[in-house]
Give the backbone structure.
Amino acid sequence: MNRHTGQQATLFDAEPLRLDGGALLSPVTVGYETYGNLNADRTNAILICHALTGDQFVASNHPITGKPGWWTRLVGPGKLIDTEKYFVVCSNVLGSCLGTTGPGSTNPATGKAYGLDFPVITIRDMVRVQAALLDHLGVGTLMAVIGGSMGGMQVLEWLTTYPERLHSAVALATAARHTAQNIAFHEVGRQAIMADPNWHDGRYYDHAAKPDKGLSVARMTAHITYLSEDALTRKFGRNLQARDAVSFGFDADFQVESYLRHQGSTFVDRFDANSYLYVTRALDYLDIAGRHEGRLADAFRRAAHVRCCVISFTSDWLYPTVENKRIVHAMNAAGVPVSFAEIDAPHGHDSFLLDVPEMDHMLTGFMTAAARARGLEA
Amino acid sequence: MTTEQLRPDLKLIADLIEPGSRVLDVGCGDGELLDWLVRHRDVDGRGIEISQSGVNECVGKGLFVIQGDADNDLAEYPDQCFDYVILSKTLQAVHRPRDVLVSLLRIGKKAVVTIPNFGQWKVRMSLVTRGRMPVTKALEKTWYNTDNIHFCTILDLFDLLEAEGIRVREFVPHTARGQRLNIGRMRANWSADQALFLLER
């Protein structure tokens, strides 16, 4: 079957990318997708930043799973992010595994996959690569940068690193730092991968067997944090999976177990275990205020011209309202024009990906006003 | 656009705002006042609003509004970052009115506060004759379901402002429809539905 596998650009081949950790990376290949056309004035570009295990296929079918893009609900012709009006760019983040350089890519120094020789990266490093991709595509300034969860963290790093290239910014269900609990959950995931005998200290690329068990358990743990207790209860309760009574064994008696196992086992088909280590590490290292002596507001001082929108969800306990409000208060203190709402939604952290009409309503208002201020016709 | 009519009670507030200033409207509702100020007085306007529908209306107008309330969200703003902070008919609904008043003048150089006057004769008569908590047009909910938990009279507010060393630059008692009453505070306390205070440290 001939599937669209996306576009790629090779960047940082002349001048290497200097990472926050001090290492140099060259070259950097970026897998990306674009939708719509850049207008003559180059004022209609929107960058969408994906979450931890997301990818550039925001509004086109996934090349491995064949499933529709992860945000087709909002991105496409005539939709909230209208690809007939905007030039939409979405790229696979640095360190990931769908066309962008990561631990599974070939290390030019050895001719073999990097594995754990790949340098540890940060959210800001991901953003540096996105900025270079936009240069490559001839996009100077963005009408908007938009993302949820880890995508929202990239939005925040855009505001701290390249504010002069932004007209507006939307951060959904996100945080400016990882808390101890966030780090703790990720550590469980990483330890699960590293405990898998097929992991081989990250040098599994030549082996037929991959650390699928470990990656699957990592995904199962993380998946619980994306849903609310209420959502799990409503969806599964204590319902049994294809049986009338518990088995007094360790099969997936409960529907919730079966569901999680399915989430884990399908995840390994589309994600690389080492990429999971690197990208979760990048999240854990995020502490934007930490770079500014604990004053988050100082991080946003150069962004006072950027129209911002921050949204949290009542049932999100991964990046709860309090973390989102910290961002909003810092923006206010820095004089950044920001709108914020905590939207009532039952689905947990994943609410930003799901059908939440109040979110759509607020985003529609924000985007329309931002486009008007940009001189784009509504 | 310049012919748009602002609600008369909001017009009283708008008349006090210098063009081009930085304004925070606390409890901005659907953003009617803020939107008017942005478009006709060229202000840099921000809002705080508790209701989701209010926030959405405001954002759709291109305003910058955060969902929150006066009790919890004023503390995070830096000192003197606004020229005016507006608190319109909201003081009676906050948990700590005294702290809120102090915050208004910490973050704003001036504050515009309007209150429903609980000392007005109709309210007093209602309590005297009915022996029950007054329910009037301006104060239309009953005691057990009202959001208005800290009522005061015009004289009460003057007392608090004095105790806090806050100066009253302008005092505009008015009717529920926003019609100015050219009377002093004693008579206003008896007859005004509402009153507007322009405050300063």
